[in-house]
Design brief:
The structure holds 2 protein chains of 2 kinds. By secondary structure, chain A is mainly alpha-helical. Chain A has helices spanning 2-20, 23-28, 32-43, 62-73, 80-91, 95-107, 119-130, 141-144, 162-174, 180-186, 191-202. In chain A, helix 4 (62-73) runs antiparallel to helix 6, helix 7 (119-130) crosses helix 11 and helix 9 packs antiparallel against helix 11 (191-202). The longest helix of chain A has 19 residues, at 2-20. Chain B has one domain: Porin. Chain B has 7 helices and 18 strands. In chain B, strands 1-2-3-4-5-6-7-9-11-12-13-14-15-16-17-18 form a 16-stranded antiparallel barrel. The radius of gyration of chain B is 22 Å and the shape is globular. Classes of the chains: A mainly alpha, B mainly beta.
Chain lengths: 204, 444
């Protein structure tokens, strides 16, 4: 029996130590720097990560970031990656931390994407600027701005990861990322047009 | 007997075995972070880039608001079929073949000890039902800190652990390499290099590491075997075990460029140790140097992934003590161990893996006569595995952190302990050990 008690006691001791640690209180009071470090695990240092699974946050609209973090926290944004990563990440953030993070990343300089000269980019530019009247697709520029810089709760699209943009448009189209306006806007976009738009916007 | 009865019986046994106990795998990390298993794992235990950072930062990343302590449990039940029966029983209390088994259960402490101090742990204790033994298992208690210097991230830390490479971030080094689950009721080839488990659980060590700019990782550590008394206390049978003479030195250097959804790691690792075989002094030491080269590539898309791991370990042995005691017929020997594995997965739920392994070394009638008729350590084979992990995106509502995996694995030997045919001198071929293994792995 003695053989079995030592490892069991070791586990119990660490368990009790953890119970005694006011972990979650401390987390909710973390300063912005600590949370930025956590965010940077996926979004990259200063909000410019390399993986298109995670959006570039640098230069994003503060109000948009704040709204999204609230949506992750209250689970109203429920696309697959939100569920995988962000519900947990946002759960411990209080309103002050959310505001601080949104402010921090919005102040990081936005970096223009790599230029593209593929023919589909020109086609996408036309959709971005003029929409597709025949299919009821409005011009993106109307809300997202002439340079796709966004405003308030409308996100910056310029320079965002191509893969992320395409994923989001498909999620809006399928309504897996619930947003009534964007669902209607994306509903009549083809896969090819989504890819072209993502390519074009990522280059701005 | 028709095929249908054993298959139905197997399914029932796996399900009953899995669900008869209150559920628990490292769900404690999921509870702490509030994230799905798939955030850190591309199929447990393979780590994603984020999972590597979670580990390097000391298992302390917060997230969710669960107040349940970071403990978890794991239970493995299985069915093992070998091509030829194992006369006398696969293990005490088990039949010659087609064995259902409750193999083992583990209890974990997995998560932060102090988030503010950056101290966290992965501590596993295991009850092995086949050997009826309770012991400590993989243990990694670490302190980590990160800072930004000149716009570059520096993550560094110290680990107290019991297995060289258990601290590693990639799934190419021995502690976390495929296959992640193997049958305890099937024959396994007799030779491996020292770093491939030779000090696992039988030693205690400390290592320090630095992960610079998420690009370059370096780690050095020193290990020493436990005393026989402490080893017994921790549930590790010291009978016939070696002891280190002076600290064993472990090193690791890896570079991992990341671009888009791709990550590619290449590096080296190794172990240098002097040991007293059987803890017998007076004959000098057996000196071992393991040098490993490894590479890992991962492509992680939204709903599917591909990963490839390869490693090659070259071991040189100078057997002063063993040779002096007549246990080997050569003073110098060498062993090389190679592993390659590729896997594809869909939705982090279905995964197919193919692996190849090979051990090749110098023949020695003293070292290998007990396992090989031609005194050779050479073995090789393939492993194919299909996994179904239904809860990687979240478990049942009443305990969403639970996870379960059903695995179907086949291992085919091309060579076993020295030869393809008649390797033991009694007419047994390597293929006699080919193993079909079905398992359920439950974590809660």
């Amino acid at each position: 029996m003695r053989k079995s008690t030592i490892p069991a006691l070791l586990t119990l001791a660490f368990t009790l130590a953890a119970c005694d640690t006011p972990r979650h209180d401390a987390v909710s009071q973390r300063d912005v720097d600590g949370n930025v470090h956590l965010c940077s695990s996926c979004h990259g240092i200063t909000g410019r990560g390399v993986s298109p699974t995670f959006p570039i946050l640098a230069g994003q609209q503060a109000d948009y970031l704040e709204a999204q973090l609230h949506a992750f926290r209250d689970h109203s944004r429920a696309d697959p990656h939100a569920h995988t990563y962000m519900w947990g990440m946002a759960a411990h953030l209080d309103d002050g931390a959310i505001k601080g993070l949104a402010d921090y990343f919005s102040r990081q300089p936005a970096i223009p994407g790599p230029p593209v000269d593929e023919p589909t980019a020109a086609e996408a530019k036309a959709i971005f600027t003029n929409g597709i009247d025949a299919r009821g697709v409005p011009a993106c520029v109307g809300c997202h701005g002439e340079k796709a810089e966004g405003q308030s709760t409308i996100p910056r699209l310029a320079g965002q990861h191509r893969g992320y943009l395409a994923d989001q448009l498909r999620l809006f189209r399928s309504n897996d990322r619930a947003n009534e306006t964007m669902h209607e806007n994306a509903l009549n976009l083809s896969d090819r047009e989504i890819e072209a738009l993502a390519l074009y916007l990522s280059s701005l | 007997m028709s095929m249908s009865r054993p298959i139905i019986g197997l399914m029932l046994a796996l399900l009953v075995g899995a669900f008869a106990r209150p559920a628990a795998a490292l769900p404690s990390y999921a509870r702490q972070t509030g994230q799905e298993c798939a955030a850190c794992h591309n199929g447990f235990p393979e780590l994603t880039p984020y999972g590597r950072l979670f580990k390097a930062n000391g298992y302390v990343f917060p997230g969710a608001t669960s107040s349940i302590p970071p403990v978890a449990a794991m239970v493995v039940n299985s069915f093992t079929h070998t091509q030829s029966p194992q006369v006398g029983g696969a293990a005490p209390g088990y039949g010659d073949n087609d064995n259902f088994a409750f193999e083992f259960a583990s209890l974990f402490y997995g998560g932060a000890i102090s988030t503010d101090l950056g101290i966290g742990a992965f501590i596993q204790t295991t009850y092995n039902h086949l050997s009826k033994r309770f012991s400590w298992d993989n243990t990694d208690i670490r302190w980590a800190h990160s800072s930004i210097v000149a716009d570059r991230e520096w993550v560094y830390g110290v680990s107290l652990n019991n297995n060289p490479s258990v601290t590693d971030l990639w799934n190419t080094t021995p502690a976390w390499r495929f296959p992640f689950q193997t049958s305890g009721l099937a024959p396994t080839a007799g030779t491996a290099t020292l770093i491939e488990g030779g000090l696992a659980g039988s030693s205690l060590g400390a290592s320090t590491y630095l992960f610079w700019d998420r690009l370059i990782y370096g780690e050095v550590g020193l290990y020493h075997t436990l005393s026989t008394r402490l080893s017994s206390t921790l549930g590790v049978d010291p009978t016939g075990s070696n002891s280190t003479s002076g600290p064993a030195f472990y090193w690791r250097l890896a570079v991992e460029p990341n671009w888009g959804r791709h990550s590619w790691e290449f590096g080296t690792f190794g172990l240098k140790a002097s040991e007293l075989p059987g803890r017998v002094s007076g004959f000098g030491t057996d000196d071992t140097t393991d040098i490993g080269l490894d590479t890992q590539y991962q492509f992680l898309a939204a709903d599917y992934s591909f990963s490839l791991q390869a490693s090659h370990i070259f071991e040189t042995l100078t057997l002063n003590s063993t040779y002096g005691q007549g246990g080997s017929d050569k003073l110098h020997n060498s062993v090389a161990s190679s592993h390659v594995k590729a896997s594809v997965s869909y939705d982090q739920t279905y995964a197919l893996t193919l692996g190849y392994f090979r051990v090749i070394g110098s023949a020695d009638s003293g070292l290998y006569s007990g396992i090989s008729a031609n005194n050779s350590p050479n073995s090789a084979g393939i492993t194919a595995e299909f996994d179904y992990t239904p809860f990687n995106h979240g478990g049942p509502g009443f305990w969403p952190w639970a996870n379960i995996r059903f695995g179907l694995q086949y291992t085919g030997y091309l060579k076993f302990d020295g030869a393809s045919q008649n390797y033991d001198g009694n007419g047994t071929n390597a293929s006699a050990n080919n193993t079909l293994y079905l398992f359920s792995w439950l974590a809660f």
